[in-house]
């Protein structure tokens, strides 16, 4: 087995998380060696691939699951504010890179695309109005618009209203500052920058073993998936950004912090339209109300997507069940992830989320006609001839221990790291990619607390609001938002 020198930083997985962390670490410690392992033949081919996600640039502008209704009828905006703050960190980070020509600043990965929420029925209209009132009291959402006027909504998004019953109560909100993000293009740009500055990228290489050695380094065993050549190296710090496979690699590492975690995999499918005549009539990402029992990532939405400069429309996602943790994973991923320490949490989640399982089975078995009828609820005059199915990415939601229930299903992302700071991994899904910069700053704080003081000037240069919140100073927030929008070529 071939061996080589000790690497300072090893990143497992060639997606947006590894790309972001590698870029941050290279900025603050440019003398560190970095190696990236990716089991596929290219980077950004799983969840970061633009056709495997909605590219929403999650900022809680349109996603209703971030603004639940309290028992007294008031709207809780806590999660919405948190997600928006995290997305603003990503924007600041990308803008800094664009100013220094580290990522393309000519709209190749990010485009201004209004974020809308559209609802039907009296009760949902009332909820959306209360949500809008609650959000617009906060400086990060003060520009959001609301309307119950069909003519106004038609002006915002014509496909939603043509052919709709004019007596049906409808309402919509619109945030002009929304974006569409091609996380594939962004990931490739970041990794190209790292490789150009000396990082090593090993494609078609699967990490098969992780073991902590007595000197505190990690022994990493890998194999080339084509030639089957095996290799061994050592690393001072390891980040596992392998999407759904992160859990099994953290389990291989044997860190106690990973005990009790499990994953609940959910597959997906889109309907896609490339007809220029249809695409030209819709420039927005429009989210609706989730079906009863649907997981948050399955909230229906009709999206403008811009990939490699070409606009398309996506509708969905239609969720389903699959035991794979990655789109190109293994049918044994789920059963092989079961351990004595996570069996009880996984069984508890299965028991408490039976309605979710039923929903996913129904979605999986829906006919093409039934799926298309869901699109027509958004776009009444949709023509089946204009749309075709497209596989979406695989999502693996976090299952974790809970003192009362035994286990709970967590929607979001979670950093799992070793106590000594030499290894960290990321579990979970949405809104991950959009908040990658904030999440990777958390990894840095946990893993390198003794270096933060020395790194702070560089981090503040990359992210002006580092260590604080954009909304702490509304006037300064406006200035920073306008500056980042200009650097990224966006509508402020």
From TrEMBL:
Family, per entry: Belongs to the MQO family.
Enzyme class: oxidoreductase
EC numbers: 1.1.5.4
Source organism per UniProt: Amnibacterium setariae
UniProt keyword annotations, A-Z: FAD, Flavoprotein, Oxidoreductase, Tricarboxylic acid cycle
Domain of life according to the entry: Bacteria
Name of the protein in question: Probable malate:quinone oxidoreductase
Annotated catalysed reactions: (S)-malate + a quinone = a quinol + oxaloacetate
Name of the gene encoding the protein in the UniProt record: mqo
